[in-house]
Every structure is written in structure tokens, then in C-alpha cells.
Amino acid sequence: MLDLTPMSVRDPARVPCCVSIDVEEYVHVEVARGVVDFNQWDDWPSRVERNVDLLLTLFDACGLRGTFFILGHVAQRHESMVKRIAQAGHEIASHGSNHQRLHQLNTETFRADVLACKKLLEDQTGQHVRGYRAPTFSVVRQTAWAIDVLVELGFEYDASIFPIRHPWYGVPTTPVSPFMVCNGSGSALLEVPPLVYRLGSWNLPAAGGGYFRLLPLVLMQWALAQACRQGRPAILYFHPWEFDPQMPRMPLSVTGRIRTYTGLRRAQSRLECIMRRSSRWSPIGDVLGELRALADTHPVFDLARCAVTHN
Ligand SMILES: [Zn+2]
Question: CA 201, CA 241: separation in Å to the nearest integer?
């Protein structure tokens, strides 16, 4: 049994672990861009309800509640599924409307995209949507303006900044535990970064997605144990299609196929292993007070300058 009991943290019982699900179809993956375009998405068979129901059953069996960042495009087509997620006691959060990376948007189009999804999810569930995760973790230095928009729209946290180096995303100089982020002189927002494994000065991604399916499971287990030892919350993420070996195959590039289709058959047993061997799973929204208290131990991070503020 993996021991997630922290050994030298401020208050070991108060280190939360959070499972999050980015609720989208397999056609929404970044590597399918240019292969299956936006106007072709509905031509492909939907698999999201089958896969979300599988996750809801798994979570129920483990007594786990999580955070579901739901894409507006999916919520529009599967309202009853959104309601099932909410009725099972999970947190409803936003993954935006149309799964466009923020680099493709500006302040106005981003505001419209995020507002439409937030309103849709709140109308469908009656839950106040407090959290946001950008498609492909695309809140980075160049899209720091997104923080101002999220604050303006009343979001209480963002979960989009990955503290790693990656060609598409990532800000490797941010803290690896929750922190407050701002865009220059704008208001600060609570940022909840995905789990990494610290190896010297390196941050290795260990929070989910392709890293969960392609790399040895022990990396995620080590990262969970290390985070708990260090008093860091562990935020994991998965996608419903990652638990669907039977999903239709898109004509992706070789690297796209490796990224998307490797490890699908073992994903469910791996997730069960992680869920059953951990101590405390909570929706992110349920532990915002604790996450905020941890964030307040760091200086505010100015994403526009990629540096901490000194006020
Ligand atoms: Zn996504």
C-alpha cells in the first residue's frame, strides 16, 4: 500500500488530493486539429457518455468525488450526462466552449467562449461554476490576459498552468503548489497546478493524460508520495476517452497515434490502483480554503512577466 501519509509537513491531515476530468470527446484532442476540424466533430460517433458513466461507476465504487471540467460543446449535446455528474456529488467546472487554445483567441473571444460555457453549465446543474481549465493548458505568459477575464467573470480558481517545459504549454518557473497569479497590475486569482515530480531543479509531469498512460505508473505514485511529504496538494487530470480502447481511430500522425492510443487498455486498472491506494480525494472546489491558505505562503506570480511580484 502506497503510504501517502506526509512525514514532515505543517499539517499532514490537511494535504488534499484531487482527481479532475476534462470532459471532452476523442475528436477534441489537440493532435486531431487539422485532421478532424470543428465542423466535422459531429460526424464522428460520440463516446463521451459511455466513458463518463464508466468513470462515475468507478468513482462511486471508491467513494471518490472529483472535479469535472466540462466542455461547452459536449454539455450542449449531453445535458442529461452533465446532470448525472452533478447529481453524483461531483464538482462542475468549465473547460470552455469550443476547445480552442487561448493562443487562437483574444480577450473578447475568450470572454464570450468562457461566459457561454459557464452560463450553460450553471443553467443545467444549478451549481455555481467556480473553476476553469483551459484547453491544452494554454494559460501561459503570452495569454496572461486570460487571468483578468477569469477574475472579471467571477471564477474562484484556474487550473491551467502546468509548471513544466513543453512545446505547446507550460510555465516552468511557477510554484509547483497552489499560488496566486496575476496579469501585471490586475487582480490575482488562485492557481491550482497539476502534479509534478521534483527531480533536483526539474519538474517532471506526473499528473495524468499521456504521462499517465505512456510512462511507468510508479512515476505518478512517487509524485503523489513526494507531494504529500512536502505538504503539496496533488492535482491529477484524466480524459474520458483515455478509458475507451474501442474508440474510433482517427487518421493521426505517427506521434499523434502514439500520444492518443497508447496505454488505453491499462488505463482503467491504473486509475483504480491510484484511487484505491490514496488517502484523501476531494473536489477542488471543496478544499479551496486550504488551497488558498497554501497559495498565500508564496508571493503573487505575475504571469505577464513570469516573475513574482514584490508588493
Ligand atoms: Zn481538453
Answer: 33
